[in-house]
Amino acid sequence: MTLHPDPHLALVRPVQPLTPEGCQECLLLGSPWVHLRLCLSCGHVGCCDSSPNKHARRHAASDGHPIVRSFQPGEEWRWCYVHEAFV
Fold it and tell me: What is the pTM for the complete model shown?
């Protein structure tokens, strides 16, 4: 079986976190989060699926930016929300 790279990787760009201090929407709402994800298309910082508001997933769906990287110290993995898989 041949594995093919995720086609959404073409959307990955060099980015800087827009809100390095935390989830962009949670900071505005005063809401807590569990872990953070960095959008690799635009630099949006959103909260993970274990967080009450799941802003990273919402951003991926609304903006068409499916690839995120963990924004947790020491973690380097990437995730595609469309394929629900590590990339």
Answer: 0.94
